[in-house]
Specification:
Layout: H1 2-36, H2 51-73, H3 76-82, H4 85-97, H5 104-122, H6 133-140, H7 143-167
GO molecular function, one term: magnesium ion transmembrane transporter activity
Subunit structure: Homodimer.
Pfam families: Mg_trans_NIPA
């Protein structure tokens, strides 16, 4: 069991590296294609002829496949949080390879990704197998789950109906 989790962990880490770097490779390909023809943002399709963009796409596919395989060897509670590491890989590579400035808030976001992933992995509950729909229903009507669901719905409605119309155009935190 230990070696299976370790293999899943390694695959998830490799997946994050591939997926995070694929964004940078694709962006370099888009920039290169934008020099010779209309940009993709203005309806151009020149990037489809750019080998660097295709290398980025292949890199992403390899990363997604390794992420999928990681779920075979390790529980989702271990693999899923490690997906956030692709954000860190992408941010760091963008800083060094694309010469994009990594602001203090970006560094803070990367640190929060690391802390969040670590906390989730360390405090993950034991997996239990569910054998029937009745067991799922019993879990769904637990007070903690109902409170969580009601809270998420209430917060989402407040954000959508109140904050988004008032602040959505001027504040990136409110979409």
């Amino acid at each position: 069991m230990y070696s299976s989790n370790l293999l899943g962990f390694i695959l998830a880490m490799v997946s994050s590296a591939f997926i995070g770097s694929s964004f940078i490779i694709k962006k370099k390909g888009l920039r290169k294609a934008g020099v010779s023809g209309p940009r993709a943002s203005s309806g151009g399709y020149g990037y489809l002829l750019e080998p660097l963009w295709w290398i980025g796409m292949i890199t992403m596919v390899v990363g997604e496949i390794s992420n999928f395989v990681a779920y075979i060897y390790a529980p989702a509670v271990l693999v899923t949080p490690l997906g956030a590491l692709s954000i860190i890989v992408s941010a760091v590579l963008a800083h060094f390879l694309l010469k994009e400035k990594l602001q203090k808030m970006g560094v803070l976001g990367c640190l929060l990704c690391i802390v969040g992933s670590t906390v989730i992995v360390l405090h993950a509950p034991e997996e239990r197998s569910i054998n029937s729909v009745e067991e799922i229903w019993e879990l769904a009507i637990q007070p903690a789950f109902l409170l969580y669901t009601a809270s998420v719905v209430a917060i989402a409605l407040v954000l959508i109906l109140y904050f988004s119309p008032r602040y959505g155009q001027t504040n990136i935190l409110v979409l």
